[in-house]
Design brief:
Blueprint: E1 12-14, H1 15-21, H2 28-36, E2 40-42, E3 45-46, E4 53-55, E5 59-64, E6 67-73, H3 83-86, E7 90-92, H4 105-108
Antiparallel strand pairs: 1-4, 2-3, 2-5, 5-6, 6-7
Organism: Devosia nitrariae
Pfam family, one: S4
Keywords: RNA-binding
Amino acid sequence: MVGAGENGTNRRERLDRFLFFARAVKSRTLAQKLIETGAVRVNSERTTSSDRKVGAGDVLTMQLRGRILVWRILDPGTRRGPASEAQTLYQDISPPAPDRPDNDPVRTRQ
């Protein structure tokens, strides 16, 4: 018998596992550290709890690799698969990265 959680519609996953499955980070340990620093919000609420449950419809806002990422979870996933599979777990609704002007000191340093 298939329970409601097994068909994917109501299934929820730990936040650290989702970030690992979605390939936002390379390991669950790194996911836990990212969450504990407060760099992740779930539905606009900052969380420092890596065992927070997330599922389809939740929106994650993260500061990662110098960018603000906003992901809508489509499926919490069941494993860490290839990148092509990981990209099906979320919809990236991040704002576009700001363009750097030509006179930006970071770009013109020698």
